[in-house]
Structures are given as structure tokens and as C-alpha cells.
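Researcher: Here's my situation. A collaborator sent me these components and asked whether they could plausibly form a single complex. I don't have experimental data yet, so a predicted model of the whole assembly would be a useful starting point for our discussion.
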Amino acid sequence: MNYFLSEELRDIKELCAEIAEKYIIPARAELDEENRFPSEIMKVMADSDLCGIYIPEAYGGSAEMFGGGSLALCVATEELSRACGGVAVSFAANALGAMPILISGSEDQKKKYLPLLASGSRMAAFALTEPEAGSDAGGVKTRAVRDGDHYVINGTKQWITNGGEAQIYTVIAQTDPSRGARGLSAFIMEEGTEGFSYGKKENKMGIRASATRELIFEDCRVPVENLIAREGFGFIVAMKTLNRSRPGVAAQAVGIAQGALDEAAGYASQRVQFGRRIDSFQGIQFMLADMATQIEAARALVYSVARMIDAGEKKYEKESAMAKVFASDVAMRVTTDAVQILGGYGYMKEYPVEKMMRDAKITQIYEGTNQIQRAVIASALIKETAGGKR
Amino acid sequence: MASIEVRRDACVGCGACVPACPFGVISMEDGLAVIGEACTLCGACESACPYGAIIIRTGEAGGGDLSEYSGVMVLAEQRNNEVDHSTLELLGEASRLAEVSGEKVSVLLMTARPGNWPERLISHGADIVYVAAVPELERYRTEPFSRIAERVIREKKPAVVLAAATTTGRDLMPRIAKYLETGLTADCTELAIDDETGVLLQTRPAFGGNILATIVCSDTRPQMATVRPKVMKALEPDSSRKGVVEEIGILPGDLESRTEILEWLPLEEGEVDISEAEVIVSGGRGLKSPENFALLRELAGLLGGSVGASRAAVDAGWIEYPHQVGQTGKTVQPRIYLACGISGAVQHRVGMQSSDRILALNKDENAPIFEFCDHGYVGDLFEVLPLVIKEIRRRLG
Amino acid sequence: MRFVVVVKQVPDTAEVRIDEEKGTLIREGVPSILNPFDEYAIEEALRWRDELGGSVIVVTMGPPQAEAVLREAVAMGADEAILLSDRAFAGADTLATSNTLARAVSRIGDVDVVITGKQAIDGDTAQTGPSIAASLDWPQVTFVGKVRQLGDGVMVAERYVEDGCEVIRASLPVVITLLKDANTPRLPSLRGKMKARKMEIPVWGIDDLGLEPGKVGLDGSPTRVVKVATPEASSGGEIHRGEPGELAALIVDRLLGGEVE
């Protein structure tokens, strides 16, 4: 389908496709097997100016050139995910880590950190999840206590994408436990801060090229100027960040699904059984047709939401959740069907579709499970109904 | 300015030119051949047209009295204080070419110490050996060698000049050809004299070995070509052959050079150049990882051979580029070439197809390599190769 | 330091297929690409420019659509691009091509280093580089695997030959032809791609270069292709199937058996 992407957005797509072909596809099986972070590929992306596509020109990026940056980030993430969801999320998680600064940071914070991220000389990560705080962000136990012109932070963050690889972390911590979610605050934490260390690297089912790690804070002293927005605004910062980043997860899902469809269609055109190419069998044809249709519908939704954000719409929580739910469910179905079409070969590691199926699963889980997304969508619906909008 | 024209009065619309065009730019419209924009004026259609209806017009060709030129001159190459074998092959080919017209075969030897080389060259077919010998010609350098060769060629007027398509020949010959404003054909695999015109027909692979192009240089002399090593056959040496040795004087300025060899780093012991290897065990995408090249190294070691690789394996970073065989790598002609897990894409094929015997091991029975190997084995290399190694150890004791 | 990189647009020979019935090349759908060796030449020039300062000017001779490879080079980071295009240039062999390219180098002026790929994958002649050097009367270093040093009027480079490596010092200006060992070409950057799309690329024809018709194109080419044939299709070898052990024994027979046939 022709989405009439601007020439600049097509440049992004082309460039990501080239990176995928030259660097990601040759390496993806090995990165997956060895659970290894793709540092060299991240360097290539930085050298290709891809790290600043969502950051405004004033802070060293190029977002204006692409009409805002949300669609740009989606196009890039989708194209990279087509080759490897793990490499793609390592790229996209930078934007997630940068988003609190971009959305709610002070001018000084933006000037200090965003250019480093736009050039790709530093990487970022967003740290919200804890062992006891997943879907329920109010359960965050990490504590930040004001001490003069510093905050002293103690606690542990879990399953942090780009953990150990990033140098700049945006961390959600509790400044007023009596207020629950309303007592959360967001901080910028730099690697090397005394008392900040990394825990174990996780051994995951999918997106194994990405680094997922624990962050451990033991009496970490963070200067007060690293507080994002104000005390007690942490939950809002986190929610705004996730609303903005969810189309990216959705784009990742679309890319993974497209990659799986490409493999399945290619295989079905080569594989001969009963003396015929298997794509001549209606059973396979209908599967491929459904896969393609679902992917296109998901892509159309994702691009529409991203365009809405780029156009300046302020309220997009519901739509962003819809894109994420729909695209990630599509990715899971399509990758499962791709494995089915490849049959026994699909189940083998020599072919990339089993990995795509493993990679797809996480898109239904992270940045808010699909159940939480449905709750978000439903609550928005209920509000609209109550407000007489329906 | 050059142009191509279809004579409307002569074209009968037979369509013979359409498949003859290597670029697919000719179509038939209203019973006439129409030449498309992408035409490169290569001339293939002109010779294919049975009615002489296609004409390529060139401007005025360079003049000069072509009849002043006769004989075949070979530019000798030295390696490891020896005449390189490629020179002997060229002498063999030169003798065959010169025989047609009854002309002489000469060879230009530029070196520091000729020793008994002139006699050796004569025994391999040279009628005249021109020797330019000064210590400064110890190693090949572009400027002194091209300057001396240019002068000798201008003086002796050979009709044909041949050199090996080695790094030396391919550095030297284009330079001389430019000085002489004459044509040069690279990396020929076949040479012949046209019966009617007496011009040299120079045949070489192009387009990654997809086509063989025959090229002539009709209007300027000499006709120059570099020739792929190990394709032509040297003559059996005959020490009773007689020849003339003529010394070439060195002029002031001949030895001036703007390049200087600071250091010579020969390939290390045991580091066989694959283009010289007798046996090559080569691996491709099917090897799956760099570690698995150890299998090939072990096997090559047992056979006294070298390890080669396809572009896929090199691009994946499993083995270094000097091992790459193919169009963008090295051309090899071993006695035995064993391809393991190599599909046999065209660009690989052109680098190894002149091997004496090609063995191919691949688990995909539809791999193109099975279409041009001598012996194909359909099997999993990870199962078969360890058994091959074991069996060789057993047989060799 | 001023670099000129000479590049060529070529058909992707890996994609060329033979029509087995007609015995001709199927060129339809074969993409035109930047000659792979030239990517290394561009990269080498960019690296030295980044280190020493100066500019990289990329030049090609070809039909108007050859401009695409110049834009690729600009997207990688080349500063300027010039297309040499004229109907009079058509049908050029390596001599006529290098006459044209050498004249362009002279017209650009103040060039220190001309870099080009070892060879183009359509013709595989490797003649253009040395021939340009001869036309300009500059020194040349061919088959360069590594440029060690550049500046102060000299270059030191490693030239890879059959049995080893020559470390060569050359005075500038110089023409070099590059092997793939020399570097790893960078990808284009986003900014580069945008610059490439918008850049006006000057086109120089025969009059701009002040060349005579007899020196360029088909008329300036002493060689002519008189026949094009496809290599004989091989009938295919003897194919063996069986258990790994059986196959291994057969392979060893061939490997050790010497002249069995």
C-alpha cells in the first residue's frame, strides 16, 4: 500500500533496509544464539545519522525534516524489525529512554543530554519496571530521598532494555511513598554515578540481541538538577513517555510480521510438494492472504497514530494503545502462521521464522501488556461515553 | 562521431539481430530492427546481420603504415629470480600465432641479471631475445619498465605484444598502450589470427564470465593483449633451437621513477597463494561459521593444498579476503578444486572453472555447482568431511 | 588534499542470467549498481579527507542515468560530483575512456590523488587506472591493499602482488587502484542522502573537456568487439548420492587417486 511517505522518510526506510541487508541479516542468528548486543550495528546506525530522527534540530537532531519524528521512528523501527526485532528494539529503546527528557525535561537537561543521544555517541534507557512493579507502576519501591542539593536513590530496576549498554538512564523512583503513584518522580542517572551498578543480564526467549538487565542503586547520589519536571510528576512523565513510545512497539511488531510474511511467501513459492509449488494450494494461499491483510491493517493504524502525534494532537493515549494491541497480536499470529507454512523447516533454527515467532511474543508484553492496553482503551471509551461523546 | 544505423532498404526483418544483442536493446517494429537508446555500439548485431543491414560508422581511424609491423613480442616477467612460467606459456602461444604468418617471435627481457635466461627463452620458442639488463631492473617498477618497453616496441615494430595478465602485466601494459595510443585487451583466454585480415582475434570473458567477447584492434599497431596465466601451453623446451640475443641500451632518464619500493614483504612460509595452489579445498555459505573452516584447513593440510572461500563466506567474515575465489576474488586453476557448501553462483564459477577437476559437496541437490562440477556429492558436509579426513589419514598411514 | 575518485555504473553481474534457449544475456531487470570495487575507492578518499581535510570529487563517464552512482557517492560523503556524458563518448574502450577521464582530472585541477577501484565488474579489464595515469603522465600504484601514509607530497602504500606485498613510496600527484582489502566502505548517512538528492550535478560533454572527436567514444577506441558468445554450457558432472561414509570414500578416491580417468 502506498502511504505517500515523503522523500525524507523514504530515505530512512532505504537506509534501514541497507543496514538490515548488510549488517543485521548476516549477524542475526549469531546474535540470537549468543545473546549478544549488536554494538557494531549500533555504531553503524549512529554514523548514518539515524539516532536523531525523533529529536528536534535545536538539540542536534533532525525531527523537523520528517515532520515531527514519530512516524520517522516508526518507519525506521519497522524496517529494522523486518530483519531482527532484537536489534530494532536496541535502537528504539534509546528513544524510550530519551522521551522523558524530550517531553518533560528542562531546557538545560535537553541541551545537555539530547545532542549526545542525537549523535549516537551515547545511548539511553528507560527504567520503570521492578520485581514488584510491572503493570502496576504504583508499586515502585525504588526510593529517592532529598539530601541537600542531591537525591539519594536506593532500589533495583528489572528487565531494563539497553541496561548496561546505555550511558544515560531515566529512572522512576518514589519520593513520597505515602502518595503511591502520585509520589513518583523521574530522574536522569548517568552511568558511573557512585553506587550505580548492573545486575545480571537476562536470558530471554526472544529479542536476544537486545540487552536486558537489572540496575542496582545503592546510595546513589543524583544532583537535584537531574530531577525531571517536579517531584510527584514521575507517574505522569512515565505515562506520557509510554503513550508516545507505544506506536514504536507497534511498528516493531509490524516489521517482525512483515519479515515473517516475506520468508513464508518466499518459501511457499519455492517449496514443491505433490509436484506443485505449495503456494498453488488454496490452504496456503488463504493463510498468506490473511497474513498480508492483517499486516497492512496494522501498518495503516500505526502510521495513522504516528502521523496524528506528529501533527500535534495532544490526546492519543487510546489510539496509541490500540496500535500496540492490534499490531502485536497480528505479529504473534502472522509469525506463528509463518512457522506453520515452513513446516518442519520453520521449526528449525536454520530458518529465521522460529526466531521471529519468539521475537514477536514480547511485543504483546512490554511497554504495557496487551491486557493493560485494553483496559486503557476501555477506560477511554467509558469516559467518552460518560462525557456524551458517543 | 560514431553512430549505428539500420539500413531500411536492406533490413528484411528477419530478427537475427535481436538475440545477438548482449544488451537486449534491439526490438522489431513494423518489420524493421530498431536499436534502443541503451546501445553501447558493441557491434554484436552488425556481425550477426546476414544482410549487412546494420552499420556502425566510426570516424576516421588512426593511420600509420600497418605493414611496417610484424612478429609477436612477449614481455618477459621475472619472479623469485626465475623467468615466470607465464612467460613460457606466452612464448608457446606466440609461436603458434607467428607460425600462421611465418613471422618472428621476440621477447623483451628487462632484469638485473639475465644469467642463462636468454637461452631458456630461446629453447621455449623465442627467435630474438632483447635484453635490457641493469641492476635497477631487479624488481618491476612501472616507469622504468614501461619507458624501456615503449622504446623497444617503437623501434622493433612488432605487430602483436603480449604480456601475462598478472599484477605486473596489468600494471605495465595499459601504460605502454596509452603511450603508443593503441588498443589493449585484458585477460585474454584465447588468441587467434583471422584468416582473411590477419588481425589478432582476442577472446576474453566479460560480464562476470557470462559472455565471451572477441575483440580486435584493426587500425592501430601493435595489437596488445594481456593473457590469463595457466591458460596457454608452453612448448616443450628444445635446447637445439637457435635464436638471436640483442642487448638493449639504457638511456639517461630510462630509470627515473617517481615510485620507489621501500620494502618487500614476501608471503610467509606456509602461506600459500591460492592462485598458485595445486589443490584447493574451498568453503561457502554452507560452512555456517568461521570455526568450521578448521575442517577445511585440516583437509587442505593433509593434501598439501590451500583453503579457498566463496564471496558469501568472506562477506560473512568467516575467512579473510585473500582466500576469496571468484570474480571479485582470485582466479585459480588447481589440479583439484573441492567446493564444500558452495552453491556455485556465476561470480564464483568464473574464478575456478578452469580447474583441472572440480569436486562439489553440497546438501542441496539443486545447487548450480552440480551443473558444472566434474563429480558432485549430495551430502551434509559436516557428516562427510570428518569421514574424508579420517579416511585420508587411514590411507596415508 | 584534493581527491578525485573515478567510478563506474555497471550492471550487477551477479544478477545476469543466461537465456538458455537463445544463448543470450538476460539484461532485463538487472539492476545497475555502483561498481563494487569503487565503493572502496570512495571510502579510502573519504577517510583521508576526514583526516587531512580537503575535498573528494567523484567523477564518472556514462549515460545520463549514470548520475545515480554519483549520488550514491555523495550520500556516502563525497563533496562534489561531475558526470561526463555526451553521445560522442558512447562505445569507448579503455583508451578512449581514460582519455576522457584524464582530461576531466586536468580540468578539475590541483588534484593530489586519483583513486579508482581495481577493476569494474562488467569489463574486468583493470586498465583504466594505469591508462589515466599514463595520460596525465603521473606515477601509478595499482592493486593497493592499504594506504599507509599520505601527505607532504608523498604517499606510502602496500601493493599486493602474487607472491607478496611491495611497500611503495610515490610522489604526488598519483593515481592508485584499490583492492577490497583496503577498508570497509561506510553506508550513506541520512544527511548525505538528502544532500545527494538535492545536489545539482554538472554534466561535462566533449566541448567542455576540449577533446577532439577522434579521441573519445567509439572513434577514439582502437579496439572493437566483433563477436559475443556465451560460454558453452557444461553438461554437468557425475552426481553421487549415498551414506556419508560412501561419499567420503568416493571423494578420497578422487582426492588421492591422481589420474583415475
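Model: Some features of this prediction you could bring to your collaborator: Residues 287 and 337 of chain A are 7 Å apart (CA to CA). Chain A touches chain C at residues 7-8, 11-12, 14-15, 18-19, 22, 44, 47-50, 53, 62, 65 (CB under 8 Å).
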